C-alpha cells in the first residue's frame, strides 16, 4: 500500500490537477477571477494614503522636520508619513509584478497554476499582515517589505497564474477567456476600495484610524478567496480540444496565428518579442500616466465650472473644493468601470478582428483622443473631455486583456505563460516612466508660471506621441521566423514528458485506496469512474453555478457601490 501512495502525485503537483474527461471548462474562469479580484486591490491602495498620512495624529498629520528626508521617514515613529512617501509602495507593486512574473514564469509552466496560485495567496495576504504590523509599530520600512516587496511578488505570481491555462482551455476564444480573468484585476479596486473604507470606519477609534485592523481583515478575506481559486485550477489533458472545434486554417487575416511553439528560453532573442514589449510599454506608460492624474486634472482644468461658478481652481474656498473633489471621486469611479468593461469588450473584440488590428485601434484612436483632450478643455466641453479619458482607460485595460492572446498567436501556447511573465517587465518599466513623465511635466509647466487649467496640455501631446511610437512598432510585427520555433523532435520530447506525467498521475489516482473505495450515493454503490461521470453531468452544473456566484456577487456589489459614487459626478 505504501508503494501505491508513493506513486500518487503530490497535492500541489501539476499532474494532480489534470482535468478528467467531460470536465466543464467554464469552471476555470471563476477560479482565475477569485485570485485577480483580490490582487487587483493593488490599484486601490491609494484609499489608505490619507488615513496613513495621519496615522499618529488621527485627525491631523504630525509633520516631520522640514529637513527630514525619505530615509528618516522609513524609521521615524514621531511623525506621520507624507503621501508622496507612501506612493513608493504603489511603485514597488508594479516593479515587483513585472520582475516576479519574468523570473518565475518558466517555473509556472513546470509546476502548474495551483502551486503558483497558492504561493501568490501566501505572499499577497502575508504581505498585508506584515504591513498591518508596520502600521501598528509605525515603521514604514516594514510596510515596504510587507506589501511592497512580498505583496508585489504575490501580485506578479497571481497575475500570470491563470494565463496559459485559460488559453489552453479556450483555444477558440483566447481573447474572451483571458479578458474574463484580467477583467478581475481591473475590478479588484472597485470591490476592495469601498470595502476598505467601510472597514476603516468600523475599526476606527478616537485614537486609531483602523488601518492596521483593516489590513488584517482584508488579508483573511483575500486568503479564503485566493486559496479557493487556486484549488479550483485545472489544466486540460494533452491534446484536448473543445467539442466540434477545428483549428482554423491559415489565412491572410490570421497569418500571425501560429500552430508552432517557441521555447521560453529563446524568446529574448526574437525581434517580435521586443516589438510587442515596446508596444505594451508605450500603451501602459500613456494609460497609467493619465490614470494617475485624471482626478486632479478634471478639478484643475474645469475648477468652479464643475459646480456652476466661473472661478479658477486657486480661487475656490474650502467648501467649494470639497464639492468638486466629490465630483472628481465620481469621475474616478466611472473610470474604474471603463477599465473593467474595456478588458472584456476589447479582448472579445480581438477574437473577431485579430490582435494586431485591435492594438492598432488602441494606438491610433488613443493618440487622437489624447490630442482632443486639450481642445475639449479649452472649449469647456466637459462631456468630450470625460468621454475621451473614459475610452482611453477602456483601451488601457483592453491592452492587458488582449496581450496573452497576442502572445499565443505569435509564439504558440506551449510556453505562453512564461513568455507573458517576461513581457510584463514592460509594465514594470511603464510603471516608472508614465507617472514620472506626467508629474515632472506638470511641475515644469507650473514653474514656468502657466495657469493650472493649461498645465496638462503639453503632457497630453507627449502621451499621444508615445502611442504613435507604439503604433510604428505594432505595424512592424510580422510572423515569427521558423528558425525560432521548437523542432518537431523538441516538441515531441516536451509533450512526451507531459504525457508520461499525466499517465502516471491517472494511474496513481486510479490505484489509490482513498479514491478506489466504493462510495454510497443514494443507496447505490458506484466506483470512482462512475462518480466522475456523474460529476461531469448535472452535479457539475451545481458547482459551476456556485463558482460563478462566488465571484459575481462581489463584482455586483462593487458595481453598485461604484454607481453610487458616479452619481456625484452627474
UniProtKB/TrEMBL annotation:
<feature type="transmembrane region" description="Helical">
    <location>
        <begin position="209"/>
        <end position="233"/>
    </location>
</feature>
<keyword id="KW-1133">Transmembrane helix</keyword>
<feature type="domain" description="Major facilitator superfamily (MFS) profile">
    <location>
        <begin position="32"/>
        <end position="482"/>
    </location>
</feature>
<dbReference type="InterPro" id="IPR020846">
    <property type="entry name" value="MFS_dom"/>
</dbReference>
<feature type="transmembrane region" description="Helical">
    <location>
        <begin position="273"/>
        <end position="294"/>
    </location>
</feature>
<feature type="transmembrane region" description="Helical">
    <location>
        <begin position="140"/>
        <end position="163"/>
    </location>
</feature>
<dbReference type="Pfam" id="PF07690">
    <property type="entry name" value="MFS_1"/>
</dbReference>
<protein>
    <submittedName>
        <fullName>MFS transporter</fullName>
    </submittedName>
</protein>
<feature type="transmembrane region" description="Helical">
    <location>
        <begin position="321"/>
        <end position="345"/>
    </location>
</feature>
<feature type="transmembrane region" description="Helical">
    <location>
        <begin position="26"/>
        <end position="50"/>
    </location>
</feature>
<dbReference type="InterPro" id="IPR036259">
    <property type="entry name" value="MFS_trans_sf"/>
</dbReference>
<feature type="transmembrane region" description="Helical">
    <location>
        <begin position="175"/>
        <end position="197"/>
    </location>
</feature>
<feature type="transmembrane region" description="Helical">
    <location>
        <begin position="419"/>
        <end position="438"/>
    </location>
</feature>
<feature type="transmembrane region" description="Helical">
    <location>
        <begin position="541"/>
        <end position="560"/>
    </location>
</feature>
<keyword id="KW-0812">Transmembrane</keyword>
<keyword id="KW-0472">Membrane</keyword>
<feature type="transmembrane region" description="Helical">
    <location>
        <begin position="357"/>
        <end position="377"/>
    </location>
</feature>
<dbReference type="GO" id="GO:0022857">
    <property type="term" value="F:transmembrane transporter activity"/>
</dbReference>
<dbReference type="InterPro" id="IPR050327">
    <property type="entry name" value="Proton-linked_MCT"/>
</dbReference>
<feature type="transmembrane region" description="Helical">
    <location>
        <begin position="458"/>
        <end position="477"/>
    </location>
</feature>
<feature type="transmembrane region" description="Helical">
    <location>
        <begin position="86"/>
        <end position="104"/>
    </location>
</feature>
<feature type="transmembrane region" description="Helical">
    <location>
        <begin position="383"/>
        <end position="407"/>
    </location>
</feature>
<feature type="transmembrane region" description="Helical">
    <location>
        <begin position="116"/>
        <end position="134"/>
    </location>
</feature>
<dbReference type="InterPro" id="IPR011701">
    <property type="entry name" value="MFS"/>
</dbReference>
Amino acid at each position: 500500500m505504501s508503494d501505491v501512495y508513493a506513486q500518487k502525485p503530490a497535492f500541489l503537483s501539476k499532474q494532480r490537477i489534470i482535468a478528467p474527461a467531460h470536465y466543464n471548462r467554464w469552471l476555470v474562469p471563476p477560479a482565475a477571477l477569485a485570485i485577480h479580484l483580490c490582487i487587483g486591490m493593488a490599484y486601490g491602495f491609494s484609499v489608505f494614503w490619507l488615513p496613513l498620512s495621519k496615522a499618529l495624529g488621527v485627525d491631523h498629520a504630525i509633520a516631520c522636520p522640514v529637513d527630514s528626508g525619505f530615509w528618516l521617514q522609513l524609521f521615524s515613529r514621531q511623525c506621520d508619513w507624507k503621501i508622496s512617501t507612501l506612493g513608493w509602495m504603489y511603485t514597488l507593486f508594479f516593479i515587483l509584478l513585472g520582475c516576479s512574473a519574468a523570473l518565475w514564469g518558466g517555473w509556472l509552466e513546470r509546476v502548474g497554476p495551483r502551486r503558483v496560485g497558492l504561493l501568490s495567496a501566501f505572499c499577497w495576504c502575508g504581505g498585508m499582515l506584515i504591513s498591518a504590523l508596520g502600521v501598528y509599530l509605525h515603521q514604514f520600512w516594514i510596510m515596504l517589505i510587507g506589501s511592497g516587496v512580498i505583496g508585489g511578488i504575490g501580485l506578479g505570481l497571481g497575475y500570470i497564474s491563470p494565463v496559459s491555462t485559460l488559453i489552453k482551455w479556450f483555444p477558440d476564444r483566447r481573447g474572451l477567456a483571458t479578458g474574463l480573468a484580467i477583467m478581475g484585476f481591473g475590478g479588484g479596486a472597485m470591490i476592495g476600495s469601498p470595502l476598505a473604507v467601510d472597514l476603516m470606519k468600523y475599526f476606527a477609534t478616537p485614537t486609531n484610524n483602523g488601518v492596521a485592523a483593516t489590513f488584517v481583515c482584508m488579508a483573511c478575506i483575500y486568503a479564503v478567496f485566493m486559496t479557493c481559486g487556486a484549488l479550483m485550477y485545472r489544466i486540460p489533458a494533452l491534446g484536448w480540444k473543445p467539442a466540434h472545434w477545428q483549428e482554423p486554417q491559415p489565412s491572410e487575416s490570421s497569418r500571425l496565428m501560429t500552430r508552432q511553439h517557441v521555447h521560453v528560453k529563446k524568446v529574448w532573442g526574437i525581434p517580435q518579442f521586443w516589438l510587442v514589449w515596446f508596444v505594451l510599454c508605450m500603451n501602459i506608460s500613456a494609460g497609467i500616466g493619465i490614470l494617475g492624474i485624471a482626478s486632479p486634472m478634471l478639478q484643475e482644468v474645469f475648477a468652479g465650472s464643475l459646480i456652476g461658478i466661473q472661478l479658477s481652481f486657486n480661487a475656490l474656498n474650502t467648501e467649494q473644493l470639497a464639492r468638486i473633489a466629490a465630483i472628481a471621486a465620481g469621475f474616478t469611479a466611472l473610470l474604474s468601470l471603463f477599465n473593467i468593461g474595456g478588458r472584456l469588450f476589447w479582448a472579445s473584440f480581438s477574437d473577431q478582428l485579430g490582435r494586431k488590428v485591435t492594438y492598432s485601434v488602441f494606438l491610433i484612436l488613443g493618440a487622437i483622443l489624447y490630442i482632443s483632450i486639450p481642445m475639449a478643455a479649452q472649449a469647456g466641453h466637459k462631456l468630450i473631455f470625460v468621454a475621451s479619458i473614459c475610452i482611453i482607460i477602456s483601451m488601457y485595460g483592453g491592452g492587458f486583456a488582449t496581450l496573452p492572446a497576442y502572445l499565443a498567436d505569435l509564439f504558440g501556447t506551449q510556453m505562453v505563460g512564461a513568455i507573458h511573465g517576461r513581457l510584463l517587465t514592460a509594465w514594470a518599466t511603464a510603471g516608472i516612466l508614465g507617472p514620472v513623465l506626467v508629474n515632472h511635466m506638470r511641475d515644469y509647466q507650473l514653474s514656468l508660471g502657466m495657469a493650472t487649467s493649461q498645465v496638462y496640455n503639453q503632457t497630453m501631446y507627449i502621451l499621444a506621441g508615445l502611442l504613435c511610437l507604439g503604433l510604428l512598432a505594432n505595424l512592424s510585427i510580422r510572423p515569427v521566423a521558423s528558425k525560432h520555433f521548437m523542432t518537431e523532435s523538441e516538441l515531441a520530447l516536451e509533450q512526451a514528458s507531459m504525457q508520461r506525467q499525466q499517465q502516471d498521475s491517472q494511474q496513481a489516482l486510479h490505484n489509490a485506496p482513498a479514491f478506489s473505495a466504493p462510495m454510497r450515493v443514494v443507496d447505490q454503490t458506484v466506483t470512482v469512474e462512475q462518480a466522475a461521470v456523474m460529476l461531469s453531468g448535472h452535479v457539475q452544473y451545481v458547482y459551476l453555478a456556485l463558482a460563478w456566484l462566488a465571484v459575481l456577487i462581489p463584482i455586483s456589489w462593487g458595481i453598485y457601490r461604484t454607481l453610487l459614487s458616479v452619481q456625484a459626478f452627474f
